[in-house]
Specification:
Structural class: alpha/beta
Radius of gyration: 19 Å
Largest sheet: 8 strands, mixed
């Protein structure tokens, strides 16, 4: 091992179901002999990152590849207090299938980003329960309930830091590889072809039928003046707005806190709740990483 070898940080960004792409990114890096010393994640990036640093990425990948729309819906427990989903069923499942640990005991340095709801402050989670940190980091506003930790209500870190390059630097990374899952989202949501008739719907709108409430009125407008522009449901408006927010904040943060290598999978065809489309996301993560691999090896002196 060379002396003074730079510490490599991996910043895994937010992006809901698009986050399965991180699995493909990590696989290509590992195959190339590039092993991060520090892993930081926001939202879905914190979930994949936690599985990776705990040495459980292979069983985790097997699990996500086996997800179907029905099984995803089965993990959701609906509420109207603080969000549409409690999250208890999902994280109880994760606690059952993946070893619960303290962040400080993991084999690699790990951190997750959340947002304090009351103040809007960025919160760095670097100790305590891994699953609780991931749960707070991924508590998407309006969808998942806020998580109480140490007397604070925390929500998704994507509100303040969608691609946590700054956290990687603060935790000692000399070179940061960042993964931005949202670079191609704006303006693309309604250009995507609808799913085949045999497939389950994959928009937030389809979740309405699972709720024990009469929320059909929140779906896209069916009556009224004829328009050449389709009227989205309130949940599509929410997801598109979140996409815009993440893209704008990411661009601003990366301009001031640039990564050394930026990986940008093209994932606009995946909707917010497309967790059952892991294979597509993972393949795209691999492709996007191979695209920058030569540049990364040159940066690390391994060309």
């Amino acid at each position: 091992m060379q002396l003074n070898q730079p510490r490599i940080g991996l910043a895994l960004g937010s992006g809901s179901a698009r986050g399965w792409s991180h699995i493909g990114v990590i696989r290509v890096l590992e195959e190339a002999g590039i092993t991060p010393d520090i892993v930081c994640g926001t939202s879905i990036g914190s979930l994949v990152g936690a599985a990776y640093v705990d040495g459980q990425l292979k069983p985790f990948e097997k699990w996500v590849r086996g997800l179907t729309w029905q099984s995803v819906m089965g993990l959701l427990d609906f509420t109207i207090t603080g969000g549409l989903i409690h999250g208890e069923k999902l994280f109880a499942y994760l606690r059952t299938h993946f070893t619960e640990k303290d962040i400080t005991t993991l084999s690699k340095t790990f951190g997750a980003v959340a947002t304090e709801l009351a103040t809007g402050r960025e919160v760095w989670l670097r100790d305590g329960s891994v699953i609780d940190a991931v749960r707070a980091s991924a508590a998407l506003p309006g969808l998942f309930k806020p998580i109480e930790m140490n007397g604070r209500l925390l929500v998704d870190g994507a509100l303040v830091n969608p691609v946590p390059v700054s956290l990687c630097r603060a935790m000692g990374a000399d070179i940061v590889i960042a993964v931005d899952l949202n670079s191609d989202l704006i303006g693309r949501r309604f250009d995507v072809e609808p799913p085949a008739a045999a497939e389950e719907p994959s928009t937030l709108e389809s979740m309405l039928d699972k709720l024990p409430l009469k929320l059909g009125r929140l779906k896209g407008e069916q009556n009224g003046p004829v328009s050449t522009i389709p009227i989205p449901s309130i949940f599509d408006v929410l997801s598109i707005s979140l996409n815009i927010m993440q893209v704008r904040i990411t661009r601003s943060r990366l301009a001031g806190e640039p990564a050394d290598i930026l990986i940008r999978p093209r994932l606009a065809n995946l909707a917010l709740m497309d967790y059952h489309r892991a294979a597509e996301a993972i393949d795209e993560g691999e492709r996007a990483t191979r695209q920058v691999l030569n540049e990364l090896k040159e940066l690390l002196g391994r060309a």
